[in-house]
Amino acid sequence: MKLVLDASVALSWLRLPSQTCSEQAFAILDDLNGEAVLVPQIWPMEVAQGALRVERQQQATAATLAKFSAVLNSVPVVNESRPSTAWLPQCEQLAREHGLTIYDASYLELALWRGAALATFDKRLAQAAQASGVLVVGHEPAHRLEEPVLRYGGRHCLAGLALTSPRTSSGRPAPHRGVRQTRRRPAAAP
């Protein structure tokens, strides 16, 4: 099976105490049986940034980082080789359509282009992949999905998370991250 590997899975190979998806990430690694994984051009930088952040925050020892590096080096990786003009317009469209970052959309675009499954612990990316007809590896079937809570630092997976929009205490849908909420002022009397 062709598989696109998201950085969320690779970074779980750090096996930090805060990472509850490490066992699942290693199961994905074991299931590869030496087969190469596909990664977009951003993948090495995302993984390196995640490891650097963990190091700077002193969440991992030098020995942990060395083991992580050895695991990374053991995985046969095929880096995306198409020029950005071949995939970037599709990434922009997927990002707009599914509310993804361009970075995350690059994983989905590669999976679609190569007819591959996608291994991810990122909820929004998994939902977009499923909506696009891509097989997703790294989450519970049907109604359950696991998601990292923090980017690259402490990776946590939430079990039993329903695939619904978050709600505020009043029951209304919560605003998307990065969306600024403004109050409407009543119109002035004529």
Short structural description:
With 190 residues, the chain is mostly helical. The chain is 42% helix and 7% strand.
N-to-C CA distance: 67 Å
Briefly note the structural class of the backbone.
Answer: mainly alpha
Strand order of the largest sheet: 1-4-5
At the third CATH level, what is the topology name? Rossmann fold
Shape: globular
Largest sheet: 3 strands, parallel
Number of strands: 5
CATH class: Alpha Beta
Mean pLDDT, to the nearest integer, reads: 78
CATH superfamily: 5'-nuclease
Task: Return residue spans where pLDDT drops below 50 for at least 5 consecutive residues.
Answer: 141-186
Strand percent estimate: 5-15%
Order of helices and strands: EHHEHHEHHEHE
CATH architecture title: 3-Layer(aba) Sandwich
What's the assembly state of these chains? Answer: single chain
Q: Any idea what the radius of gyration is?
A: 18 Å
* Tally of distinct domains: 1
Number of helices: 7
List keywords for this structure.
3-stranded parallel β-sheet; 5 strands; mainly alpha; 190 residues; Rossmann fold
Describe the protein's architecture and organization.
This protein is mainly alpha-helical and 190 residues long. It has a single domain, classed as Rossmann fold (3-Layer(aba) Sandwich). Helices cover 42% and strands 7% of the residues. The chain contains seven helices and five strands; from the N terminus they run E-H-H-E-H-H-E-H-H-E-H-E. It starts with a strand and ends in a 53-residue tail after the last strand.
